[in-house]
Design brief:
Structural class: alpha/beta
Strand order of the largest sheet: 7-11-6-1-4-5-12
CATH topology of the largest domain: Rossmann fold
CATH class of the largest domain: Alpha Beta
CATH architecture of the largest domain: 3-Layer(aba) Sandwich
Bound molecules: flavin-adenine dinucleotide
Number of helices: 8
Length: 339
């Protein structure tokens, strides 16, 4: 009762990274609240799935293992969460802001008439004072995310309704094992008690999953280009530099919108969040929506013709010049020095 729950997304019998990141965050929240962390794994062939989640500090794992639960379909998974939450009455439920989380979260929150904040960038515990009614609510989940086109950072609370639900994109939270030998209880539920037969009305006959073309999220070095790269050909220079540095190429939304690079390479609030050791921003002005996706980079180098570009204020090194003149030199000297 009153615990923190994380819905773990399954790819086959593997727990998705975004869920492990949320377990890490959930552990911190549960510890602060003095309650337990519980994980829900629903899929097919989940023997030993607990081994993947317990090291993240999970106190109880709810396993739902049945043939119709993988690949994900909306109705059975919704029934599992709704019926489990009616029993367990969690105070918080977290899930990935993925295709699945975006489908499942609203269904569950609507069935339980609870609140849901999508795409949170931070989650914290704090109090809320309702001055109008003279009530102070203790230990609420602060669901923090950019709002109004990213121009403000809003803190959203659900004072009355439970669970307080939030989705978070992959890569926003850090994944950290708490203790390899963490001991927790494993509960293998009788799925039929939670999911009516009629929920299996949709059957997935065939499924094609396209492999990611790059590893932008996990890359230790990212070379990112903005509108200042000027063209698709300008981006070819970045791919050449990235090849030399064993890096991945990312882009700003303006560069993606202009067709300079593919959409799946967009970094920022509505793109991918990256945490590289080195981020080289080329012809990127550094608007808040872009910064949201790369501000945790270890070292930031900005290449920009405008000495007052906002990105320069968060950069560790600024190279003031045009990309046309600076990038070829970087390629040339890196090639020379790495021989
Ligand atoms: C709801 C919302 C979500 C958004 N989400 C994202 C997001 O996820 N990611 C994102 O990136 N943006 C996002 N944006 C857009 C964001 O506000 C900016 O418009 C965008 O980041 C600007 O991209 P840019 O820096 O490449 O372009 P610009 O702002 O046009 O900057 C170009 C930069 O290049 C420099 N430059 C020009 N020519 C050269 C040259 N020859 N050599 C060197 N430097 C040069 C200029 O000095 C300038 O600093 C979002 C906006 C909204 C409203």
């Amino acid at each position: 009762m009153n615990n923190v729950f994380v819905y773990c997304e399954m790819e086959g019998n593997h727990v998705a990274d975004v869920s492990l990141e949320l377990l890490t965050k959930g552990r911190k929240l549960a510890t602060e609240l003095g309650c337990q962390l519980e994980a829900i794994c629903a899929g097919c062939g989940l023997a030993d799935v607990e081994k993947q989640v317990l090291p993240f500090g999970v106190d109880r794992v709810h396993v739902f293992d049945a043939p119709g639960l993988f690949p994900y379909t909306s109705l059975p998974h919704t029934s599992i969460l709704v019926n489990l939450f009616k029993q367990e009455k969690p105070q918080i439920c977290l899930m990935g802001a993925t295709v699945i989380g975006r489908d499942l979260g609203p269904r569950v929150s609507s069935a339980l008439t609870s609140g849901l904040t999508a795409d949170c960038t931070q989650l914290e515990i704090g109090d809320h004072e309702d001055k109008k009614n003279g009530v102070t609510y203790k230990n609420l989940l602060y669901q923090i995310r950019p709002a109004f086109g990213g121009n403000i950072v809003a803190t959203i609370v659900n004072p009355e309704h439970r669970p307080q639900m939030a989705t978070v994109r992959e890569g926003v939270m850090k994944k950290e094992i708490l203790d390899e030998n963490y001991q927790g209880e494993v509960i293998r539920h009788d799925v039929a008690k939670f999911v009516p037969e009629t929920d299996y009305v949709v059957k997935v006959i065939d499924r094609h999953v396209e492999k990611a073309k790059h590893n932008l999220k996990g890359a230790p070095i990212v070379v990112a280009g903005g509108y200042g790269m000027g063209s698709k050909e300008g981006f070819d220079m970045l791919f050449e530099l990235a090849k030399e540095l064993h890096a991945e190429v990312g882009g700003s939304r303006a560069a993606v919108d202009a067709g300079f690079c593919d959409h799946d390479r967009q970094i920022g609030q509505t793109g991918v969040t990256v945490h590289p050791k080195l981020y080289i921003a080329c012809g990127i002005s550094g608007q808040i929506q872009h910064i949201a996706g790369m501000q945790d980079a270890g070292i930031i180098i900005s290449v920009n013709s405008d000495p007052n570009a906002p990105i320069n204020s968060i950069a560790d090194y600024v190279i003031n010049g045009t990309v046309e003149e600076v990038i070829p030199k970087m390629i040339k000297y890196y090639k020379k020095n790495s021989k």
